[in-house]
User: What shape does this take?
Amino acid sequence: MIPLAYLFLAWLIFVAIFVLFAILTVTVHMRFGVSGSFTTVTGVIFLIVGILVILVSGIYFTQVDWSQNIGLFNLNTFGTQQSTSQFNL
Amino acid sequence: MFDLQHLPNSVPGEKVIHFLRRHPVTLLPVILGYVFAILIPVVAFTYLFLYEPTIVQNSILFPVIVIISSLMFLFTWLILFQMFMDYYLDVWIVTTRRILSIEQTGLFNRVVSELRLYRVQDVTSQTKGFLHTMLDYGFVEIQTAGEKTHFVFEEIPNPLAVSKTILELAERDRNEHLDQSIEMYSNKS
Assistant: This one.
């Protein structure tokens, strides 16, 4: 059994890695791209879409009960509410 | 950002003749990647909401799906943008005095090379394959006098016209350079 919260933690770590690389990528793009609106617009679109996906996922995650467990070997546990004392002390 | 009006180490009186990137058709895999990156999540989530409401209402499975799909989308988005950047930041500039080659490899590798036109010896244009011939794009290889290194413009549009222009500009620059050298030599003596 894996607590669902661990997956959320993994999501946060990967999002932090994405943000780091996104900032580096846009910095290189803006610094070495030919001056003009196209360079700026493409960089901004890349950032806006990334931020939107993180925001939408984040807003959905606020409604999730993270105190549940995932049964790895028994797929039938998906769908059953399994709040455990581990997270409900 | 770098400005075409203020090129690095600019030579007085030089004008930009060609500003070259790879042919836009080379961007096709990236464009297709963007289309799939946007379409797949839209289609998948629409299908789930319309035909599999039990999965959407599942308080464990659906968050797992959202976690995995959002991460997959974000990293696909990042990789596709870096592929686009690899296309966008590789440029070759031909001016009346020199050739500039700016190539970006990955995030942290950038090579800027410069070649004075009077040193150009051979220019070869090459189109190979069906797509190159049909869409008129290919390679231009520039060989310099007395050096092993050479410049290669990769998959640029109209390679034949570009190579012809470079040869003409090189000839003109060589004559001007020769005149300057004779003038300098006669002034010294």
Notes: The CA atoms of residues 48 and 54 of chain B lie 9 Å apart. The beta strands of chain B are 16-20, 91-95, 98-105, 109-116, 120-126, 137-144, 150-157. Chain B touches chain A at residues 1-4, 19, 54, 58-61, 63-64, 66-67, 70-71, 73-75, 77-78, 81-82, 84-85, 88-89, 91, 102, 104, 107-108, 110 (CB under 8 Å). Chain B is about 50% helix and 25% strand.
